[in-house]
Amino acid sequence: MSAGAHPTRLVWRRLLRHRLAEISLAFLVVLLVLSLGAPLLAGLRGVDPSMTDLYHRLEGPSARNWLGTDDLGRDLFQRLLDGGRVSLLVGIMGAILSAILGAIIGVVAGYRGGRLDSVLMRFTDGVIALPLLPLLVILAAIDPAKIGIPPDVAQSETFSLYRIVVIVALTGWTTVARLVRAETLSLKARDFTRAAQALGARPWRIMLRHILPNAAGSLVVSTTMSIGTLILFESTLSFLGLGIQPPAASWGNMLTGAQELLQEAPMLAVWPGLLILLTVIAFNFLGDGLQDALDPRSERRT
Fold it and tell me: The domain 7-46+67-301 is classified under which CATH number: 1.20.1090.10, 3.40.50.720, 1.10.10.10, 1.10.3720.10?
């Protein structure tokens, strides 16, 4: 490998050496493409995943319904893709929002130090100490109409989706904040940071232009690995009836609808449960691969 190779190419080559990360990336790309293209695929197949047909409920796989139908006669394959689009959107958007919130708190705490650092880190420790599932349930159980949200907005599918994104993000930023703070404490002692301070750069500019870009590697890895956790959070809330509400599909509420039919139609629970498991594992393996790929020392180890 040439010494002058572009850094992005080096990272990509290191990532492809991580076999599990490569397989996970391929699986996630296929899943994301199928989920985003689900409406187009449904049109090409002539299937409406929201249309109920009680005369064809709980049917097995066929040429028309590739994975069979659910308890309302809807195409199970298309419902899984629709649920994947929702679950992936919640996981990815929630992880990005968590990363932004955690990065702001972490870089401010690490760079400013002193009492502000103590207050922010004690607040972070307090959030970490809270029991996570009860906290999620309490946040999800709050009635939006009682806090001033118009009823027609509160009952819409779009509001339900973004509400879950905000809820999972509010509980997922703490790891990022601690990681970015640790990186900031190290980076602010480097020569380039001291040079910027000597030239009179404002603190916010140093944090945005010098510290956060150099902490981007750790931030990307942490964000990638948190997506799987947030998908689990969303699935848990939807399974408990506090997340994405039917008729909108998510893997969590598909499991809820299948729990009473485990004896009669076990595959209704197997497919969404399997997709949750594989997606969470894939994001974790991808995060491990990115961690190795973004570490320059991995080149010397190989």
Answer: 1.10.3720.10
